[in-house]
C-alpha cells in the first residue's frame, strides 16, 4: 500500500531535522502567510509548483530561510550537521537540480527544494 503524505508532514520532518534555537517557527510562518495547517496539509507533495498557492510556497521559504546563502539558495554549510548523511546527499542532488534554474519566483525555489527532498526521502533517490 502506497502511503500518501501531505506537504505538512514534510514540514514537520524538516523542522524536526533542522530546528535550531533560531527562527524556524512553523506557527509563526503560518501566521505570517495567513495560512492554517489544514491549508498546508491540503497540498499534495506531487502538486506541480505552478498549482501550489503562493502563500504555501512562501510558507516553505519561511521555514527554511535560515539555511539560505547570500545567493538565495540552500547553503549546505548552514544546514550543518542537521540531518543524516542521506539527507545531505538528497539536498545536494536537489540543489544541483534547481540552483541553476533562473525563471523561478522567490518562493518557488524553496518549495521545489523541499518537494525534491520529500520525494528523495520517500524513494531514496530524486527524479530529474
UniProtKB/TrEMBL annotation:
Signal peptide stretch: 1-26
GO molecular function: odorant binding
Listed InterPro entries: PBP/GOBP (IPR006170), PBP_GOBP_sf (IPR036728)
Signal listed as a keyword: yes
Keywords: Signal
CDD domains: PBP_GOBP
SUPFAM superfamilies per record: Insect pheromone/odorant-binding proteins (SSF47565)
Name the UniProt record assigns to this protein: Odorant binding protein 18a
